[in-house]
Amino acid sequence: MTTPDANGTPAIAVEGLWQVFGNDARARLKEARGRTGSAPEAAEELKQQGLIPAVQDAGFEVREGELFVIMGLSGSGKSTMVRCISRLVEPTAGSVLIDGEDILAASPKRLIELRRRKLGMVFQHFGLFPHMTVAENVAFPLKMLGKSRAERRARAFEVLDMVGLDGREDSYPRQLSGGQKQRVGIARSLAVNPDIWFLDEPFSALDPLIRRQLQDEFLKIQSGLRKTIVFITHDITEALKLADRIAIMRDGRIVQIGTPAEIVLKPVDNYVREFSKDVARGRHACLDSVIQTEGPLPEMPDDPKLRIDMTLDDALAACMSCYENVPVYDRDGKMAGYVHPKELADALTVDSE
Amino acid sequence: MTDQTAPPATALPYLTPGTRAALASLLVAAICLALEGRADWLWEWPDAWTLPVTDWISQGLGWLFDLIRPVVRVISTLLRYPMDWVNVALVQTPWPLIIGATVALGWYAGGLSLALLSAIGLGFVLASGYWVEGMNTLALVFVSVPLALILGLFIGIWANESPRARPWIEATLDLMQTVPTFAYLTPLLLLFGFGPVVGLIASAIYAAPPMARNTLLGLQRVEAEVKEAGIMAGATRRQQLALVEIPAASTQIMIGVNQSLMAALSMVIIAAVIGGFDDIGWEVLLTMRQANFGQSFLAGLVIVAFAIIIDRISARMATNRDRHDLRISWIILAASAALAVYAWAALPAASDIALLAPTVEAVDGALTQFTRATGATLDSIKNTAMFYGLLPLRIGLDGAVLPFTWGFSWTATMSWVLLGGGAALGLAVALTGRVAFGASLPVMAVVLETGVADLPWPFVLFGVGAVAWVAGGWKLTRLALVLLALILVSGLWERALLSLYLCGAAVIACAVLGGLLGLLSAVSNIAWAIIRPICDMLQTIPLFVFLIPVLMFFQIGEFSAFLAIILYAIVPMIRYTRHGLVTTPPELLEAAVAAGATKTQIMRDVRAPFAAPTILLGLNQTILYAFAMLVITALIGTTGLGQSIYLALGQADVGLGIAAGAAMAILALISDRIVQGFAEERRRALGL
Amino acid sequence: MKKLAIAAVVLSTIGGAQAAELGDTGTPIRLAINEWTGQHLTTQIAGQILEEAGYTVEYVTAGYMNMYQAMADGEIHAALEVWESNVSDQYYDQLEAGGVVEVSDLGLTAREGFVYPAHVAEICPGLPAWEALNDCAMQFATAETIPQGRLVDYPADWGTPGADRVAGLELPYRAVPAGSEGALIAELRASTERETPLLMVFWQPHWAVSAYDLTFVDLPAGTPECYEDPSWGVNPDATFDCDFLPSRIFKVAWSGFEEQWPAAYEILEAYQLATEDQQPMMGAVDVDGQSVEEVAAAYVEANSEEISAMIAAATE
User: Fold this and answer.
1) Chain C residue numbers touching B389 (CB-CB < 8 A)
2) Is the CB of residue B65 less than 8 Å away from at least one CB of chain C?
3) Among B319, B345, B395, C305, which lies 20 to 30 A Cα-Cα from C105?
4) Which chains touch C (3 or more CB pairs under 8 A)?
């Protein structure tokens, strides 16, 4: 399921990751794995013993600079997953490599070092320190790094400016609106300029309007910073809007990993299909996900000038009056393949069956 | 959402836990009754089976105390220094300056209202003529509370950091708070010797648990994400605690500080029994010894004044971060300092001010007048309550019904009629479907016939075990049985039953009366405006003070003790009942109104069930308060465990003091767990 | 005047003490202040005498029942009014261990017994003869004790002398422990104000004896044999079928006292206070509201000659 990165080590590589809650989880997981052949069977057995396998045999890789979204309903294990990767909880089994370094084997000292310099995290309910001002909150990771007071304050102002909160530096969190609080959270997680950025449902607690606004700003910030991001959400629209790739989780397992278009157009099972049901998929998938490139070219009487990066909606609108195959061109105007309008329509109604 | 599977409503042979427990108790009661006269050991625990537990404790502790006494004495000596400094500082500082400083602090924390409160409160202390004694008391509090706070903070953090130690720490904290305050004093006296240091240590021990609990609670309640944010910023565990978790928990911790202060203040008074310090507690005791109600009430009110000022200022600082203009505080302070410096010679010494002496005499005179005028009425109230309520409950109808009291003698036939009637009524009720209630009716008949103090011990063990099982399953049953068995073999059983009877009677009265007053307070704001300050006063005034009027009205004996317990223990019942009833979510009320419910229907069918868990918690508090007060009523002359504890203090008998204190704590703990169990069950049923 | 004369006699009879060193006058002598007014006066007078002799004195409030550990530790140096009838085990433990020593008798004559307020004489006309109690039992009965009469006994931690006598004399009464001195006084107050019957165990000297006009019931005279031997007395099968033995009241000191302040010890040894002197002073404090210091100072002033003689005998 994972896509190996051609350009060397992935920023994050997760393999065979298990998180089982309950007494004596480690030994019992090992036992169950030994007895049964597959991960789902082992998980089933653990459940019967009263344990909670929150993450089961998860594996994926995140490339440097990639925005990787983990999507799932509440209780699907996505928040646990991100806490395993950041080792906020101790995984029961498996490995997590960050830039090739096994974070699960890191000593407490090394772990603190990694968190101080390399990792940043944003929380669903902001996790702001109630007893510190906005500037103190943002400067806290710098304080841990041992930076001087002046240096901390200067950097805090800089980051706060970036998230559009200049002027509120000396307010307390309780005096801010939800959207402003999360801006502080984002600023704080960026204060030490970490390479890897974890965002745990950062926009879920916000009003829809504010949420969209922050998503846009987040994309803007990310386009400038190009961080490696693990982004948790339960909102398919958000996932589709932001992600380079999406992993969909269900009951502790990753059921599908793919680009937004793959998720929408080629759901692996009904569960994933159910997710994308209400999504106007025509807006999220582009022609590249449906075109035929192989075989002899059929006869094509019409040419509505479809381009490979057009969304399905636009393409369908363009060939309303076509009934035969039509050609599709790439960005340079060369023919990339062809598509039948009926297939276009089918792709959009895939879940009506 | 949790799934609730309702028990089958059909008449299948399914028995609810309540029914099973009631039937089992009934069975044991029947066996005991059947063997009455044939097996005395069932009815009375034989002396031969009693272990000399008190002697063992005395010897063991005597040995231990001899071992550690040198170290402890050093601590005791060291503690005397700060104590003396604070004392000298408070007593020597001119009173205008102390009042000024307090008013300034009041202003800073809470503005005009708190500044006024401070001025009036300390003004009252000054006018009472107890200024010096009051400052001595404060010195004790100000040294013991920091000790308690450090101790409590440390214990709270320890409990938070070590999940393995936590259950043990929590159990110890429970014990520290349920062991009656008097019982503390005996071992401390032997260990620390004499004088204010004992009071200091006693109040530090007593005031530490609330701090520890609130620290733990505060640390546990710090949002998970706040903690994670700290970790992700790369904080070490120490940095995390010091810079993130403790500051984030500060509100809860400040509530702990507030509760610690109040606990220390109440303990300081009780510790005065030891003597050694010319403080308010000693003054209360001295005036009480002369049955001078007016004077001891006045001394008691000084404590109330301190308590209210300390409580309001510390509570405001805990819950509200906004502060008032510091400059005005400085001005108040400077003005009072100027007054102290320039007008010192003209100002009277604090101890010479006794503006309230006439009032005191008036209060005392009024008490005399009232006693004289209503003597006959008071006697008939007391006799009615004793003849038809307390006596039957204690020694059973078979002992209480006499020609002098009820007008006829109790006969064996009557016993059978009562028991048979109870059984028949129980059966009738059971047939209507309320099996558990039906089965418990004959059990009640047995209790009424025999009397709580004369109940056979297997029945008590079994009955308590059965109730514990319904409330909290086998685990609670085991705990209850083991602990009760400890009392049984230690030879304190009879006294424990007497305590149980008196507390039980008082708690029932509190539940009924307090429930009604709580209901009244919930529906009428005027009633609450009257009841609330009375509740406040009942909770802060030294408990001793109420013994005098109660004694004057109803003389030495159980009824006075009963009333004194009610006076103190009714407060939580009123508060929690009202709180539960008024906090029904508005949408529930709107739904009820929309369904066309009348006010009475809303109260009965919506508010009351919703308030049930809260009311049960109130009942739980009432039980604990009743046990606490029971010891104090030993000063009136009761015969239960309280008397043993008081006796042990007088005789410096550590073994008896600790054994009786532990027995009392056990009774309180079991009642607490059982009621908590029921409250928990109600909460779950309501999905709270 | 008559009372003062008696005091003078008492003081003058003990003039033969050995002269001794003053000792460590720099360190204050700490005297115990217990819970009752009579003791405050006894102690205050002694303190003023010691001060006159050149010592510094501190008064330390201390619980009567459990002050002996502190005394053995040298925290408190002397307690000047200890009632033999009501001494805690701690005292005997410390006496045996050598932590405290008995100094000498104080000279107060204490009396304990069954008492009743004046108005009760009308309710039970046969009083003060103890046999009358048998007939009046129902008059003294209350809800808790019916059909027996009610006798208010000492607090349980002071022992159960009332209950012992009820049993010994086979009186149809139930002894109800009072719980505290305050409870006893509250009973007296309520009974006097409401003119209700009351029988209780009480003691003198105590201010309440005059304030509530208490009369002692004439029980069969108490003897040591009565306490030990069942066959003695009106009831051949029981002990305690008699009145209380007169209680000794004495002074107790820290065992290091004599070495540290030899002369002071002699003064305390010689110090005497009569019931007739103490009782009116108690009234002056508790009823008239004068301060203990004033009343004690007046006494010291009035007896200055005897006191000077006593100091001289001890120091010169």
Assistant:
1) none
2) no
3) C305
4) B
Q: Residue written as tokens 């992935």?
A: A10
Query: Can you give the pLDDT at residue A349?
Result: 64
In this predicted model, what pLDDT tens digit does every residue of B56-74 receive, in sequence order? 888 888 888 888 888 888 8
* Same domain, residue pair C33 and C97: yes
C276 assigned to some structural domain: yes
Q: Tell me: ipTM over 0.95.
A: no
Query: Are the beta carbons of C185 and B636 separated by less than 8 Å?
Result: no
Measured CA to CA in angstroms, residue C131 lies from A11, B105, B246, C127 at distances of 106, 68, 74, 8
Q: Do A125 and B248 touch (CB under 8 A)?
A: no
Domains of chain A: 63-91+107-279 (3.40.50.300), 282-352 (3.10.580.10)
Task: With a cut of 80, say whether residue B299 has pLDDT above it.
Answer: yes
Distance from CA of B246 to the nearest CA of A (A): 10
Domain residue limits at B103: 93-128+292-355
Helix then strand then coil, in percent of chain B rounded to 5, is 85, 0, 15
Domain coverage including residue C170:
111-228
d(Cα C292, Cα A30) in Å, to the nearest integer?
84
Distance CA C10, CA B290 (A): 30
User: Are C104 and C123 members of one domain?
Assistant: no
pLDDT, tens only, B219-251 = 988 888 999 999 999 899 999 999 999 998 888
Find the CB nearest C193 among B372, B649, B653: B372
Name chain B contacts of A116, Cβ cutoff 8 Å.
233-234
Nearest-CA distance B58 → chain C (Å): 13
Question: Token pair of B540, please?
Answer: 């802060």
Total residue count of chain A as it appears in this document: 353
Q: Do chains B and A touch (3 or more CB pairs under 8 A)?
A: yes
Tell me how many domains chain B contains: 2
For the CA atoms of C41, C42, C48, C50, the dihedral, rounded to the nearest 10 degrees, stands at: -160
Cβ of A131 within 8 Å of Cβ of B231? The answer is no
Residue C44 maps to which CATH number? 3.40.190.10
pLDDT in tens, A80-130: 999 999 898 989 999 999 998 998 888 989 999 999 999 999 999 988 998
Q: For an interface test with B, which of C66, C92, C145, C282 has the most B Cβ atoms less than 10 Å from its Cβ?
A: C66
Check if the beta carbon of residue B499 is closer than 8 Å to that of residue B641.
yes
Interchain pair B247, A129: CB under 8 A: yes
Residue C307 in domain = yes
Q: Is residue B484 part of a domain?
A: no
Q: Which has the higher per-residue pLDDT, B37 or B118? A: B118
Question: Is there a single domain that holds both residue C46 and residue C115?
Answer: no
Q: What is the pLDDT of residues C268-282, one digit of tens each?
A: 999 998 888 888 888
